Amino acid sequence: MKIVDVAQEPIGENPHHVDARKVYDTEHATAVVITLNPGESLKKHITPVDVFFYVLEGTGIVEIGDERAEVEKDRLVESPAKIPHRWMNESNATFRVLVVKVPRPTTGTRLL
């Protein structure tokens, strides 16, 4: 059994310049909790593998390809590999989302 303290320090500098904390990382998958404060957003990017997002707190805007939707707590969003996507927090409250990449990518994310 492995128990992870998600309150640990952020994973360090990332290209989006937001709070990102790795909570799971094996040869099979990786998971990160991203926190966006009001007005923060991720840069549009492409991941080499499928991703699913689970909203932990708040309300955020997700863009995947040409689609855009407002998503709130306890919603799951799927994002296929190699499709541009990003998250934005246009609310006045904290927004947190769990990001799970399956399988674990062997190449990096590409910013657009």
Keywords:
112 residues, mainly beta, 5-stranded antiparallel beta sheet, 3-stranded antiparallel beta sheet, 10 strands, 0% helix, globular
Average pLDDT score = 91
Order of helices and strands: EEEEEEEEEE
How large a portion of the residues is in β-strands, by DSSP E?
over 45%
Q: If strands are numbered along the chain, what order do they take across the biggest sheet?
A: 1-2-9-4-7
How widely separated are the two ends? 38 Å
Number of helical elements:
0
- Profile the largest sheet: 5 strands, antiparallel
Structural class: mainly beta
The shape, in one word, is globular
Beta strands, count: 10
What is the percent of helical residues?
under 10%
Task: Walk me through what this model shows.
This protein is 0% helix and 48% strand. It is mostly beta strands. Strand 5 and strand 6 (67-72) form a beta hairpin. It starts with 18 loop residues before the first strand and ends with a strand. The model has no long low-confidence stretch (mean pLDDT 91).
